[in-house]
Amino acid sequence: MYFLEKITLHQIPEPKQDFTKVSPKIVLVHRKISPDGGAFLDKMIGGFKWLEEDCIHLIAEPDVPENYSTLWSQPQIKLIWAFEISPRDLGIFIEIKKYDLVLLSTIEIYWSDSLEKIDSNLLLKKQVWSDLKKLQIN
Hints:
alpha/beta, 5 strands
């Protein structure tokens, strides 16, 4: 009885977005970004030679839960890159350290600092480049 009283139940919200109509290979999850942050992200996408049409940008709102299960189940997804968004907030409940590329089934998961922090730090830029340049997305 004591055990059952201590279990925390989590409500899983209904999806607010319809992910069944998109078919991205790359999911970029971030907070709302500035125009400079967007330009830097576009530059990185080009540098990795990823196609813009293969990417989807998800704006994660702080403290607003979202159900991404219909998105994560899509077989064409190759990479989920979370900028300063905890994988737990995305419904991914495995231990991931920042700047480690982790393979989960067929999807690579990458968790990093915010775009602004990466853009302002040369060591972080080099780390991201080193980690992601070897990915074969297309």
